[in-house]
Task: structure prediction
Amino acid sequence: MEVTILCKVCNRSAPADQFKLHYKWRQVVCPRCQSGKEPVKQEVKVEPPKPAGWDQDDEYLEKASRQRKVETQAQFSKIAGSNLVKCKCFSCKYDFKYDPVRKTPYSCPYCNADIPKLKTFNL
Ligand SMILES: [Zn+2]
Ligand SMILES: [Zn+2]
Result:
């Protein structure tokens, strides 16, 4: 089995037995760096990997869809001094009290729209 090690100069791996001490770098370098040319450093990517074919349009669309998602969700806010939360119906914007423990009412008392599950709310 061939052992490859990482070249400290260009950050690329090459077979270990091809590494040689180089006067310029004062360390062992891979065959590519032994030619004396300036090595092309591989960029260390900071961004998380994007799916193939990802471009700025996708990023815009993703952002837009994320915004849409927020808009179509009912909004909850805590009511001080009570276990209830205030819920704003995403469909008719009606404000009503919602009991997150009993999970009542099941739907908007005004327009009967479903109330999404209260996942992110910490009581
Ligand atoms: Zn190298
Ligand atoms: Zn409603």
User: Anything to note?
Assistant: The chain is about 15% helix and 20% strand.
